[in-house]
Design goal:
seven-stranded mixed beta sheet, 40% helix, four-stranded mixed beta sheet, 14% strand, globular, alpha/beta, Aspartate Aminotransferase, domain 2, 16 strands
Length: 491
């Protein structure tokens, strides 16, 4: 098995954290009003006419006009009709560099022909779904278990959110404990119990409208990179029925937006063993993007359960799954008959593990391994971040840019670096106000990137793929420079 990784050198977390601390203490730097107006009128209004027309129609029948949380909103979402390698094309024929990569799964690049051919073959022979077992369910599961030693069994589900829901049910059955501790600021899907402490550490229930607070009776959060905070909560939980599991994003919350020390993961594993809690690794983004063995291979950690999403269906639907050690995975239900020796977690999904998704996922993982795609994507990201940091210095901007392999961060406002300290409640309104203001300015900078032909995730995160080549770099950096040259302190 290919054991190379996308991360050539782990980032200096203390240095980056200090830079982010400084960034949120400074006034907001954003695109100038004049430049933003120019982008709105000269680009969006004149060259994206058909996108605007379609979004105006969509708003009548779709809440907000879009179906996806990642769809960009200022001044209006664009309509994309073609994806190829590292490029996206909108309905007006404009071409963009794709640094969204569907939110992370397309390590090979979008719509690779090698995978598409296998999908066409499957559709001609079987169709997308039968509701019954297909040989590629086994082949995909086998490939995943061969790649990650801690994953002895694998169950495919419809999404990462579903996998997280299933994981905490399994953990509670396996441990006979109720409490779940998650990393503050981390995103583990949008289910009721895990929509706690998302985006901003310490936010508790404040970011989850529509969920009754009593739902969080057995959910807690700990501050990222703080093993002492995690141990304190584990110790307290010993008096409250124990901790069933600790959930983390291995590179830090929000795919490493707030990065963690290299030895943090081993520390969490040690504490889980000490207090009898299961370690649940959310590898929705890092799985197969950092390498075939995932973040757990890179950090040398053996989680009890692993959450998968996105890449295991090769960018096709039903992109989620749960893997783990046999003694834990035996608590998952399967089939509709048979005598159970113990209680089993209720999970399901009519379209989960459909033949189309399984065949796409299997050949995607094979191709990632064959071409060493994770390493290639990481190497390009290294060069991209060097170039962007040079531009930041050139224009004397307070921005913070770093990468963990092919997961790149370009923080212009530091929106998610804020945290809420409930021991100082008088500051909570200030924090919420600042994050709201800075999120608004992120949209403006993101609009400038889009107008320059750069599709990003909310203007602050970029994913590279193996489809990028070095000869593209000068053009990409020139586009970023066009944006940076129009940045100034917000008045």
């Amino acid at each position: 098995m290919n054991q190379s990784y996308a991360i050539s050198k782990y980032p200096d977390v203390k240095k980056i954290t200090k830079q982010l601390d400084d960034l949120i203490k400074m006034p907001i730097y954003t695109i100038t009003p004049e430049a933003l107006k120019r982008y709105e009128t000269e680009y969006f209004e004149k060259t994206c006419v058909h996108s605007k027309e379609m979004i105006d129609k969509a708003k009548i029948v779709i809440p907000g006009g879009v179906q996806h949380n990642l769809a960009f909103n200022h001044p209006f979402p664009l309509v994309f009709t073609k994806a190829e390698g590292c490029y996206l094309y909108d309905i007006d024929g404009n071409r963009y560099y794709d640094f969204l990569q569907a939110g992370g799964p397309t390590v090979l690049g979008s719509n690779p022909p090698e995978i598409r051919e296998q999908v066409f073959k499957l559709l001609n022979e079987c169709g997308p779904s039968t509701g019954l077992f297909h040989e590629y369910e086994y082949k995909l599961a086998k490939k995943i278990t061969e790649s990650m030693p801690s994953v002895e069994m694998f169950r495919m589900l419809g999404s990462g959110t579903e996998a997280c829901m299933g994981a905490i049910r399994v953990a509670r059955l396996a441990t006979k404990k109720k409490n779940i501790i998650k990393m503050g600021g981390a995103y583990h899907g949008w289910s009721d119990q895990l929509a706690y402490g998302i985006r901003i550490p310490g936010s508790k229930w404040t970011q989850a409208q529509g969920v009754p607070k009593f739902i969080y009776k057995y959910t807690q959060e700990f501050f990222p990179n703080r093993l002492d905070d995690l141990e304190r909560k584990l110790r307290i939980n010993q008096l409250r029925g124990g901790t069933a599991a600790v959930l983390i994003e291995p590179v830090g919350p929000e795919s490493g937006t707030r990065p963690v020390d290299f030895d943090f993961n081993k520390g969490v594993e040690r504490l889980c063993r000490k207090y009898g809690a299961l370690l649940i690794y959310d590898e929705v983004v890092t799985g197969f993007r950092l390498g075939m063995a995932g973040a757990q291979g890179y950090f040398g950690v053996s989680p009890d359960l692993t959450i998968f999403g996105k890449v295991i269906a090769g960018g096709y639907p039903s992109a989620g799954g749960l893997g783990g050690k046999k003694e834990i995975m035996k608590y998952l239900s399967a089939g509709i008959s048979g005598e159970a020796k113990h209680k089993k977690a209720l999970v399901g999904g009519t379209m989960a593990a459909n033949p189309l998704s399984c065949v796409a996922g299997y050949y995607t993982l094979c191709e990632i391994e064959r071409t060493d795609a994770a390493r290639k994507a990481g190497e390009f990201a290294d060069k991209l971040m060097i170039g962007i940091n040079n531009l930041i210095k050139k224009y004397r901007l307070p921005f913070v840019a770093f990468n963990q392999g092919s997961i790149c961060h370009l923080e212009t406002a530091g929106t998610m670096h804020f945290s809420i300290d409930w021991s100082r409640p008088w500051r909570i309104p200030e924090v919420l106000n600042q994050t709201s203001l800075r999120k608004h300015e992120m949209e403006h900078v993101g609009a400038a990137y889009m107008a320059e032909g750069l599709v990003t995730l909310a203007g602050s995160r970029l994913y590279t793929s193996a489809a990028y080549t070095d000869d593209m770099l000068p053009d990409i950096l020139e586009r970023f420079e066009h944006v940076f040259s129009n940045i100034s302190q917000k008045v």
